[in-house]
Design a protein that fits this description.
19% strand; 38% helix; alpha/beta; Rossmann fold; binds NADP nicotinamide-adenine-dinucleotide phosphate; single chain; six-stranded parallel sheet
């Protein structure tokens, strides 16, 4: 890669940001399409977020991804938010259009594209399945937004903090007038009881990231008919158990890949080189 006076700058804002895989696969995508651009990590402390966002305009940075812990806070500092950001309440992508910043959330798109790939293997469609989503944080809201947009008819949501699910239902009620019938809040301790009513189990909590994390329910109760997704980027205990039982399963890599691909397309208007991005990610 040769940098010159015309090299465009893209990046990711996070705290911490050093574990991010985005610089690798986004840079590979720019290279593959012969776009004169770099994608760099920006370590931004929460108290510096506003200054960093102003800096995007001042430095003519073309676009950025936003990661933990800034996804919600960043909405305050942009000029416009897309429809999905309004509902999800979090943004992970900003496009700088000559100093006008528009925020998007590509997590919902990323999740649904990964889910559809998995469901193809089971020859199933979203509308005919019952979902159990564990968690009600930012990632869960993106997942549930995507499921509702795709016509899911039943979603059980289990979260440690009940109020967060209640807020999610309230916020999504203008998206779909049947939201109160579609979504049923349950407690974490009720999960085992609901497994028989569920086809697809999705963990959107951070539980499973650390080896010592306690299971969210009795994983031995999984049946081989369950389709299991953990949006954490590795084979968690939940996924290991799903594999053991013979379930169809998926980790967080497809969601990560496709959300990144969508960000790339928003910034460049060009189709993302998925194969190359995936190759880098899997390395
Ligand atoms: P968040 O907004 O902080 O939400 C965290 C969720 O985890 C909440 O529902 C929280 O429950 C729950 N939780 C945390 N610790 C728990 C515990 N010990 N027991 C039970 N529940 C617990 O975080 P987020 O942004 O949604 O991210 C969640 C996970 O998704 C992270 O691991 C992140 O890396 C992953 N993620 C993956 C992708 C991808 O592309 N694959 C994209 C986005 C996020 P309470 O509400 O009770 O606190």
């Amino acid at each position: 890669m040769i940098l010159n006076g015309e090299t465009q700058v893209y990046g990711i804002l996070g705290y911490p940001v050093k574990h991010s895989k985005s610089p690798m696969f986004q840079t590979a995508a720019f290279e593959a399409l012969g776009i004169n651009a770099v994608y760099v990590p920006f370590h931004v402390k929460p108290e510096d977020l506003k200054k960093a966002i102003d800096g995007i305009k001042a430095l003519s940075i073309k676009g950025v991804n936003i990661t933990v812990p800034h996804k919600e806070e960043v909405i305050k500092y942009v000029n416009e938010v897309s429809e999905e950001v309004k509902y999800i309440g979090a943004a992970n992508t900003i496009k700088n259009i000559d100093g006008y910043l528009k925020a998007y959330n590509t997590d919902a798109y990323g999740f649904i594209r990964g889910l559809k790939e998995l469901l193809q293997k089971a020859k199933k469609e979203i509308y005919e399945l019952k979902f159990l989503v564990i968690g009600a944080g930012g990632a869960s809201r993106a997942v549930v937004y995507g499921l509702l947009k795709e016509g899911a008819q039943k979603i059980y949501i289990a979260n440690r903090t009940k109020e967060r699910v209640e807020k999610l239902i309230k916020d999504f009620s203008s998206l779909n007038k049947f939201v109160k019938e579609i979504i049923t809040p349950i407690s974490l301790s009720e999960i085992d009881k609901f497994l028989d009513k569920t086809d697809v189990i999705i963990n959107t909590t951070s539980v499973g990231l650390k080896e010592e994390d306690k299971p969210l329910f009795r994983y031995e109760n999984l049946k081989k008919e369950h389709i299991v997704i953990d949006i954490i980027y590795k084979k968690t205990l939940l996924l290991k158990e799903a594999e053991k039982k013979g379930c169809l399963w998926q980790d967080g890599l497809p969601m990560l890949l496709y959300q990144g691909a969508k960000s790339f397309e928003i910034w460049t208007g060009k189709e993302a080189p998925i194969k190359i991005m995936e190759e880098i990610l899997r390395k």
